[in-house]
Amino acid sequence: MAPIRIVLTFALINFFLGCFAETSKSAVNSKGYFFYADTGGYNIQNSLPSDFVKDGSVDYTKYVQDAISHHDSIVFPSFPILINDSGLTIGSNKVLTFLNGSKILLKSSQKTGYYILLIKNATNVTVNNAVIVGDRDTHIGKQGEWGMGLGIISSSNIVINNPNITDCWGDGIYLGETGKPNTNITISNAYIKNNRRNGISVISVNGLKLISPYLGFENGTAPMSGIDLEPNGPQDELKNIEITDPVTENNKGEGILMFLDRMYSDTDKDVSITINNHKDNGSSSGFRVICNKLKPSTGKIGGTIITYNPSWKKNTRKPLDATDIVNPNLQIVIKGAIIDNKGVSARNANSFLKKAVSAKGNFKITN
Fold first, then answer.
1. pLDDT tens, residue by residue, 164-204
2. Would you put residue 46 in left (φ > 0), alpha (ψ -120 to 50) or beta?
3. Which end of the chain, C or N, has fewer beta carbons within 10 A?
4. How far is it, in rounded angstroms, from Cα 172 to Cα 226?
């Protein structure tokens, strides 16, 4: 009987190893980052119809949403899934992990706006390795600019690891609010490309860590920036924002844009934004800040915007655009800039920068 026991033992070992391999596959985004799946998660495949397809041709929105709603740790199977413009809503205390080969495809939509994945009024959410493909190439009609890949709205303690978001009708990621700002948001190793409006729009947040994102080839409708920090109104916040090692490339707009005009009101506001080691190649401008009053108000916009060691190269318009600022209360610090553009080199970079900023602003430019 010993040989039979040995065969059975090896069969069981192979079975369990196979199960582990299926549930612990890693996802790798276009930057080469990966994050191993939670082996205890509920695989969405178990909620699909028995005759499900693996080619992303059948709409499974209601089945996927049901799985997300009823389980706390969810694993997306290793094949593409078609979702309609109702999108998927993620509640509090959830972990979503995409296996290697997992992908959400958006079914062609005629809506002017939608969220493919939405985290709204939620807390304690982690999303690992999400791969999202929008409908910019198959969108029905030409109206709107608000088709978002991932929306984070008035939420807290959110961690997004290794998202890969492309081809959205609007933005890759949108951080907005309905009554309160987002707090404690971390987005790591994002790969965001070829979206129609912006790569990432930051509307309202108090506490954002944006670590090593790539944002390239955003084009279609303004602003077309890699990262756009643009409050919708004076209720919004841009506080405690740290952007580390961002790479922006060939965006029709700016690599990084800050448009602060709508923050003005009769109440003072402060912003606090730090950018480390920004590298832009070929965008219209590497870095642009706009801060003017759109209408009379008594409040001031203060605080600091600091960018350390930026590198702005081969920009089609200008590496730095900071002439549209009428605000002595907001300090803007540029330290250690490297510029490689026509007529500008390391030798005369600081001289160029001092001419590229508004005389009515508060700038500090150093080596």
1. 999 999 999 999 999 999 999 999 999 999 999 999 999 99
2. alpha
3. N
4. 10
What is the rounded CA–CA span in Å between residue 357 and residue 321? Answer: 7
- Helix, strand, coil in percent for the chain, rounding step 5: 15, 45, 40
Break the chain into its structural domains and give their ranges. Answer: 34-211, 222-228+240-367
Q: For Cα atoms 144, 127, 217, give the angle at the middle one, nearest 5 degrees.
A: 45
Name the β-bridge partners of 338: 311
Question: Average per-residue pLDDT in the chain?
Answer: 90
Q: Is the pTM of this model over 0.85?
A: yes
Measured CA to CA, the distance from residue 297 to residue 25 in angstroms comes to 55
Phi, psi of 354 (to 5 degrees): -65, -25
Instruction: Provide the pLDDT for residue 11.
Output: 43
166 closest CA partner among 152, 151, 150? 150
Each residue of 253-312: pLDDT tens digit? 999 999 999 999 999 999 999 999 999 999 999 999 999 988 889 999 999 999 999 999
Residue 39 Rama label (left phi>0; alpha psi -120 to 50; beta): alpha
Backbone angles phi, psi at 156, to 5 degrees: -140, 155
* CA 70 and chain centroid, separation: 26
CB 61 within 8 A of CB 83: yes
CA 270 centroid distance within chain: 23
| CB-based burial label for 97 (10 Å; 0-12, 13-18, 19+) | buried
| Residue 323, H or E segment | none
Token reading at 104: 């959400």
- Which stretches within 167-221 are classed as H helix? none
Phi and psi at 299, nearest 5°, equal -75, 160
Fold of 34-211: Pectate Lyase C-like (2.160.20)
